[in-house]
Amino acid sequence: MNEASWRRLEFDKVKENVIRHTVSPAGKALAERLEPSTKQRQIESWLQETEEASELLASGASIPLSAMDGIDPFMALLGKGRIYNETELDQLSVWLTSVVQMKKYMNSKRHIAPTIAGYAESMYDCPALREELNRSIRYGQLTDQASADLSYIRRHIYASEDKIQKKMEHALHKYRTALQEPVISKRRDRFVIAVKRELRKQVPGTVWDESSSGQTLFVEPLDAAELQVELQQWKAEEERERTIILAKLSELAESFSFELHRNVEAMATFDFITARAKLSRSYDGKRIALSDQPVIRLRGARHPLLGKDSVALNVELGYDWKQLIITGPNTGGKTVTLKTIGLFALMVQSGLLVPAESGSVIGVFQHIIADVGDGQSLEQSLSTFSSHITVLKEMMKFAGPRALLLLDELAAGTDPSEGIALSIALLEQLLERGALAAATTHFNEIKSFAARTAGCQNGKMAFDPETLKPLYRLEIGEAGDSHAFAIARRFGLSEDVMLRAEQLLVRKQHPVDSGAGQALEHAAPAKTAMAAPARPAEPKAEKLEDAAKPKKKPFEKGDAVWIYPLKRAGVVFRPADERGNVIVQIQEQKLTFNHKRLKLYIAKTELYPGEEYDLDIVFESKENRKARNLMNRKYVEGLTIVTPEEDMY
């Protein structure tokens, strides 16, 4: 599969979360090798493991996982003739105890987790090794019971130390006038007393050390010297016996090499499975049905990295249509939808539970390729469009019934007309090859392709026209709008810019009959009030023509109108009075024109979202709007609203 696509779909972040939930180095190593499988039986087995572990955690019982402290380096040296020390063997003893606990725990949980409970049967108690370690080592030290010889030697050591202690106490009393302080200490493993330097000759014996100032000498009294030699001999015997015991224990451990390796593998597996279950429970993951067909049906699916408050997704691919073209406004959730589809496929094929509701189904895909984000590579100096083409080339290479292809912003990064043509040609090829594809776009031509093509379906991200906010909900069956103008107004883009943009859009969609090229170029109607008057017609013909024309609808406040004398657009501030005069706002000026000199350009119903849109935003200054809102709430002395007289044209 394509690892670059895994990163684009954020599978690497999910994998990192699995790794963080492991407790042992061996379990972490398994998690680091986590990859989606393309084998259905393997995937089913993984999902079964994760589901059972999740149910174990849900039962409230703590799974006795072992951190396996020190076991990895121990196993690395096993079979190489190493004599392990007491700490290493003690860690082995503790770990073998945890193996016994895991076997007992899993045996008691067969009714909840029959599959993974069966894995515990492959673990070995190693009773002979465990009992020998428990008898010989405690708290990282050899016990007196480790061997009969060690017990014998230590008895003589204890006796010698007792004799020396009595001799030293006698020396403290005997040489008390020469001592710096009446304390028995050890220097170089010898019992000594602290003697003043100037009184050294009063204490016969061997000097083993001195203080940093040089004023105190640490002397082994001659009275205890012979006993101390005897003690050192017994200590040497103890060290020889210690080496013999550790060598025997190490040899015994090596004889269980196969069993120990199997135990490490089993414990690491339990750790890895439990980590998958812990992650799945963190986002309320569930096991969804795995289909033998390349299909996707997600019900109530939530992106696992966005939290439980993310909006649920319902989407289908592979049943009634192979392609889904998703449209809607920017920041409306189109890209998240693509990522959710792709990430769910990768997670399921990796044995992870996913946050989706019952009825969700997903197939097994040989190739999951995503072109999400611009994918621009600074290292390779690729442009956005070039990087798209690189991914598209890979999609074409692997396109087939078992391929899931996700394309974000079709036709982006190049000339729109060429990009649209290329995108439609690509979609046709993918459809012909039977690949499942989901794509996002803003282009109407691609929406139209989806609407008229069998096997292709439109979908839109819902958008609230009242609040001008995206709802992040995918609705299948119809194409959506980008709502760019409404969003731009919501964020306060200049009304002059907006009117000009709408003017250009209308002229692009509905070009005028005569002088169309000139009108589009100069953004003004070809016929204006300044044009030469037409030749007078016969009275009867004129009356007949007038009778045939529908009655002109009067202008309304908020309508965009074309002003023939000024050759520009404005917005109606006050409809026509009894004389037919209309007040029109142009930027911050309000001018009066006769209605005959105006032409409806864009009706207010097309300009503003909803009947309740506050037109004062267009006509009043920000200061006046603030003042009016304040007046509506309370009385403010001296607060006034100044409305300048309309300039008359």
CATH topology of the largest domain: Rossmann fold
Strand order of the largest sheet: 12-13-14-10-15-16
Tell me which CATH architecture of the largest domain applies here. Answer: 3-Layer(aba) Sandwich
How does the overall form come out from the CA principal axes? elongated
Residues in β-strands, percent: 15-25%
How would you describe what is shown here?
The protein has 649 residues and is α/β, with parallel strands linked by helices. The protein folds into four domains: 3-126 and 256-282, MutS, DNA mismatch repair protein, Chain A, domain 3 (Orthogonal Bundle); 146-234; 289-488, P-loop containing nucleotide triphosphate hydrolases (Rossmann fold), CATH 3.40.50.300; 525-633, no CATH class. The strands form five sheets. A six-stranded mixed β-sheet has the order 12-13-14-10-15-16, sandwiched between helices. It has a six-stranded mixed β-sheet with strand order 21-17-18-19-20-22. A four-stranded antiparallel β-sheet has the order 3-4-6-5. Helix 4 (40-58) crosses helix 11 and helix 6 (86-108) crosses helix 8. The longest helix has 34 residues, at 222-255. The two termini are 71 Å apart. 34% of the residues are buried.
